[in-house]
Amino acid sequence: MNEKSVAFSVEPLLPVELGSGKVKFAQGIKAGRWVFATGVMAQDFVSGIAPDVLSEHMPHRGLPKRENEAATIFQNLDAVLRAAGSDRANLVRTDQYYTTVTAVPPYQYVRREFLSGRIPPSTSIAQRKFLLPAADMNIQAIGVVPARDFKIEHLKHEQLKGRPTSGYSPALTVGDFIFIPGITSMAVGDEPKRNGIAAAALMAEGAQWGGQSIKLETEFIITERIVPSLKLAGARLEDVVHAQVYLTDREDYSAFNEVWSRHFGASGPTFSIIPCIEHGLAPYDGKIEINVLAVKSGSAATKRHIDAGVVTPFRHQPQAVKAGDLLFISALMAIDHQGLVRSATVDPRQPYFSSSPEVQAEWIIDSIARLCEAAGTSLGNVVRVLLFQTDIAEFYPVYKAWERRLSGRPLPFTAIEVPAPLPVPGATVMIEAWAYAP
After folding, report:
1. Buried-most residue among 23, 336, 371, 405 (CB within 10 A)?
2. How far is CA 437 from CA 6, 59, 94, 169, 371, in A?
3. Residue-level pLDDT at 174
């Protein structure tokens, strides 16, 4: 099956062909009033990372490599925004992945200059690898084309604002939507703390038991950070429509979800639980970071759960939520009620006669297509595709599965190598997708 017969409601922006035409990449997507830029790296779309970023022959003659890298990323992002009829002042969210935490300060330095202090809610996570070996940064951004009834408002709060080095707003609203930054258990202001983490999110000093670390941090982030941040916009936990959760310890998947489910139950938002590298968050010993997107209480964008019979890996994890003109789909794997689907398992006696990543991708894409159809839209209207793989070398068969379904239409994707294991044994591919659903 392909999407040839489906009318598209989205416009690919600045499409390019990567790898001598082997991969068709949409640098951005315009969907109604939204602009999505996904997988933005400091690349020239010909040779990988732009040669003047690497300056291999005289690497220290100009700016440091990572400042050059960040500057080129923002030039590429600027081009996407301009192609959509918008600009940098209309960004509402950025998500940053890095291969090392030492790349964060130079990126943030350049970002402060680029955005002149108007930095939207932001998430920064260290991961293993990207598609380009020389890249240290991979950025996703959301912007808007503003209108009278669709204006951006940066909300302020001294206790909840980002540190001066990051400078992001603690909450932002545009239309009926509310964006909250990635939140960790890091102490702010004069809060009691140990090694940078708020004492209220930790077990008593010296104790070997008296709670579970992941549960304490999760409870603290939800009650002491997310709830007050939502309150700035007059919203509550029940107004959250989507969340991303990053964990440094894969043993914490179910313990986190136990706390999450206690607050949200079966009627909560879609959520993606994504592993990241050890010490990959702002607090050195932090175990979790959560970002959320919500809608204003009582607004026309009230969330609606979408059910297409897709199996999700966690208890009380919705398949998809439609809010306003956007469809949010939880990160999916190729699973049924018995775990990884049999068609994706590899026969150890005949290991080279199939591609498990390709089969996993086909299963996931089919699930995404079913959810899109159930929400009244189509797979061709995806605006943001995040590919999380335990081996980035397996990207190409995953991409080819998308290419077949979309008949070569440029795909707005980013591909990130994350630490194994994923939440379901044997799974090596996990995909989160958003779609435009007017």
Report:
1. 371
2. 13, 46, 22, 28, 11
3. 97
Q: Which CATH class is domain 32-150?
A: alpha beta
> Considering the domain 304-438 in this protein, what is its CATH number?
3.30.1330.40
Q: Identify the architecture of domain 153-160+167-302 in CATH.
A: 2-Layer Sandwich (3.30)
- 32-150 and 304-438 in the same fold: yes
Question: Which single residue is written with the structure tokens 């990635």?
Answer: 182
Strand segments (E) across 314-428? 320-323, 326-332, 335-336, 339-340, 382-389, 413-417
Residue 4 has a pLDDT of 44
CA separation for the pair 299, 177 (Å, rounded)? 9
Alpha-carbon gap, residue 383 to 362, rounded angstroms: 18
Q: Tokens at residue 425, please?
A: 């044994």
Domain residue spans of the chain: 32-150, 153-160+167-302, 304-438
Specify which residues 37 forms β-bridges with: 28, 141
Mapping DSSP to helix (H, G, I), strand (E, B) and coil, where does residue 110 land? helix
DSSP calls for 38-86 = EEE-SB-SSSSB-HHHH-SSSTTSSS-HHHHHHHHHHHHHHHHHHHTT-
| Locus of tokens 């897709």 | 310
